[in-house]
Specification:
With 319 residues, the protein is α/β, with parallel strands linked by helices. Helices cover 44% and strands 15% of the residues. The chain has 12 helices and 14 strands. A 6-stranded parallel β-sheet has the order 3-2-1-4-5-7, with helices on both faces. A 3-stranded parallel β-sheet has the order 6-8-12. Strands 9-11-13 form a 3-stranded mixed β-sheet.
């Protein structure tokens, strides 16, 4: 593993920015190639190799893989839920054709191991919403969810049919102080901290009782790297694993923030994103991930809120 060259596709996004740095710190800066159609943050560009890359261009992807002798690919490039609803054809093309380009190169023997993330967006209004099980009804109603559910089936197919070592997790909403949100329905859970620190108030685009599964970014990075490091024999699910962090509503996180920010207030103005949220689970059963490869989150709502406020305050003061 330490000698493998890793390619992160979508390295300028919310997850990619932090994953690149985590992987470089763990496996060596020159062993992790960042790539994206967008310029990365300075930290990413200056700390190791970067390649401009459009994941829809298979030849360009192949050139980058051969140039750096890449063995592992983390495919993070995607159009997220709220953005894909505004641009459905682009959302489908990017999310599906990008995956096929990577899976095909893996099938042809050019990539040894692939990480591809799914999402709680694969679930829909017919899915049991509390402690949503690994195996259950999945009838998504969004472009993003449809593409992720289709992607899960293709990943499992490529493993069963061709032996492609592809691994994935179903990300819940992700919360981070390091990188901005990327156009998802759960973005409020990042924006609310900025509102608290800047104005001590926030207008939320979800209803106050819209409980959703969330996860602090350090836990998400641990899950991502740990499933890729696990022995292949431990990965018994090749579509994507449920993983769980902490579930809360806007009202609950607002109350937690108010413990640190007296007088903090929230107004609620639900928009189309609230309708998306109503089709998603409230909590996730991640028994299989815990049993198969030892998954366990470290942050609850209290610890995450403390860390977010502390680190965001330091970040804004430094600007």
């Amino acid at each position: 593993m330490a000698n493998d060259t890793i390619l992160v596709i979508g390295a300028s996004g919310q997850i990619g920015t932090e994953l690149v740095m985590e992987l470089r710190n763990k496996f060596g800066h020159n062993n992790v190639v960042a790539s994206d159609v967008k310029e990365p943050q300075a930290e990413v560009k200056e700390s190791g190799p970067f390649e401009p890359l459009n994941i829809l261009d298979k030849e360009q992807l192949f050139t980058v893989i051969k140039k750096h002798q890449v063995q592992q690919v983390y495919l993070l490039a995607a159009l997220l839920s709220a953005t894909a609803e505004q641009k459905p054809m682009l959302g489908w093309e990017l999310n599906m054709d990008g995956l096929f380009n990577v899976l095909e190169l893996a099938r042809e023997g050019h990539i040894a191991k692939v990480f591809w993330p799914s999402s709680i967006a694969i679930f829909g209004p017919t899915t049991p919403r509390v402690n949503t099980p690994q195996y259950t009804i999945a009838e998504p109603t969004t472009v993003y969810g449809i593409s992720k559910l289709a992607g899960e089936r293709w990943c499992e197919y490529y493993y069963n049919k061709y032996g492609v070592d592809v691994r994935g997790v179903r990300y819940p909403g992700l919360i981070s102080y390091k990188s901005p949100p990327g156009g998802g329905t759960t973005d409020y859970a990042i924006d609310i901290f900025y509102g608290a620190l800047e104005n001590n108030r926030y207008t939320c685009f979800l209803s106050e009782e819209a409980t959703l599964p969330m996860m602090y970014m350090p836990d998400a990075l641990d899950a991502t790297i740990n499933i890729m490091e696990a022995p292949a024999s431990h990965i018994e699910i090749r579509s994507s694993y449920n993983i769980s962090g902490v579930s809360f509503s806007p009202r609950e996180i607002a109350a937690e923030i108010a413990k640190h920010q007296p007088g903090f207030s929230v107004n609620y103005a639900p928009d189309y994103r609230n309708e998306i949220a109503q089709t998603w689970p409230q909590s996730i059963d991640d028994t299989y991930a815990r049993k198969h490869w030892g998954w366990a989150p470290q942050f609850d709502l209290e610890a995450m809120t403390h860390e977010m406020l502390k680190n965001l305050a330091e970040k804004t003061q430094a600007i």
